[in-house]
Write a structure and sequence with these properties.
alpha/beta; Rossmann fold; Arc Repressor Mutant, subunit A; 3 domains; five-stranded parallel beta sheet; 16 helices; 47% helix
């Protein structure tokens, strides 16, 4: 099955998604009669769900049963996995299905499903067990079935997934186009806003969520408000963006969180190699946990390793980490667990840092 050129253009005016749709569609191997599972992986706000939605809507007429199961992380916490399993198979069979076990399907459901060509999207999966409960093995579904999984955690896709598509950031031109589309609603960009728009795009560093949030904040606002909002972002990142980004941090254990915060506050942009970071962040000579912690951060899309094994972190993720530390203080930087840049000077100048149980 091939998508024609018209289908490669988003119906929602989305920017930069045509090539992503084409790439994902090729990974789905639509001409194959095998059951195929493809993961979409990337950091929060990068556009995984949007991509899955576009492909789902373009392909769904070719399948006997379809279901786009949204927000699995959130919905499983609220309602449990049995609820989601019933929702999935009720949608596929177009009838009310009751399930009494997370590990099994009722015989009549399994008999019908295994003959059905199904298209399923599992959106925002954050635990491999969720996949196990919802889609089990390849042989649950009929020939030609396709399952798409969106996740921030590459480890979720380590088993039973045929291919993984990593969603990357938009380039500058696509970022500018997406922001202008949302901020100016298709109107011609006024020259007085040109430099301010460049500041927004440079700040967002290609993350669609950030571009859209800022576009909606600034839409139809005057130049003074734009300047004020952009200045504010330096000291206080958007709460909506931070809440989305923080989900990946909240999934980490305490040791992994400490490694992430150290990187965000002290080491990002330092061009330090993985081996050197592992030594710097050791709690003791015998501490071997840093290596696995860094790998976990990489799987969560919070850091990346270059070909030269240098660690880097997206600026928006770094801001999220630093904001987590700022929130420890209740307005008093001296009570933060970490200090950087001007805060170091301010704290020592005002003698507010607490160390070794006393004020310096």
């Amino acid at each position: 099955m091939n998508l024609n050129n018209k289908q490669l253009v988003s119906s929602k005016g989305l920017i930069g998604i045509g090539k992503q749709i084409a790439h994902l569609t090729s990974l789905l191997s639509l001409d194959s009669q095998d059951v195929h599972i493809v993961g979409i992986w990337g950091m929060g706000g990068i556009g995984k769900t949007t991509l899955a939605e576009e492909v789902f809507h373009q392909l769904q007429t070719e399948y006997e049963g379809c279901c786009f199961l949204e927000n699995i992380r959130e919905e499983s916490a609220k309602h449990g996995m049995l609820f989601l399993k019933e929702k999935l198979f009720s949608a596929l069979l177009d009838e009310d299905v009751k399930v009494d076990s997370a590990n099994r399907l009722p015989h009549y459901v399994k008999t019908r499903i295994c003959r059905m060509k199904a298209l399923i999207v599992l959106d925002d999966v954050n635990d491999f067990d969720q996949m196990e409960v919802l889609v089990g093995d390849h042989d649950w579904f009929g020939r030609g079935s396709r399952i798409i999984i969106t996740t921030r955690d590459k480890q979720v896709l380590s088993k039973d997934v045929d291919d993984i598509y990593e969603v990357g950031a938009l380039d500058y031109d696509k970022s500018l186009e997406l922001f202008n589309l949302n901020a100016f609603k298709g109107k011609e960009l006024e020259i007085e806003y040109y430099e301010l728009t460049k500041r927004v795009v440079n700040y967002a560093k290609g993350i669609p969520l950030v571009l859209k949030v800022l576009a909606h904040l600034l839409c139809e606002k005057d130049k003074l408000v734009w300047e004020s909002q952009l200045d504010k972002l330096i000291k206080m990142p958007s709460k909506k963006v931070q809440d989305v980004m923080r989900l990946s941090y909240d999934d980490l254990d305490r040791k992994e969180q400490n490694i992430f915060l150290d990187l965000a506050c002290f080491f990002n942009g330092s061009n330090l190699e993985v081996d050197y970071i592992q030594i710097l962040l050791k709690d003791s000579e015998s501490d071997n946990s840093v290596a696995s912690g860094l790998e976990r951060l990489k799987d969560k899309g919070l850091i990346s390793f270059s070909k030269d094994n240098v660690i880097s972190m997206h600026d928006i993720i770094q801001e999220m980490g630093r904001e987590i530390v700022r929130q420890e203080s209740n307005g008093d930087p001296g009570s933060c667990s970490r200090l950087w840049d001007d805060d170091v000077y301010e704290v020592f100048k005002n003698d507010t840092v607490k160390a070794f149980g006393s004020t310096i």
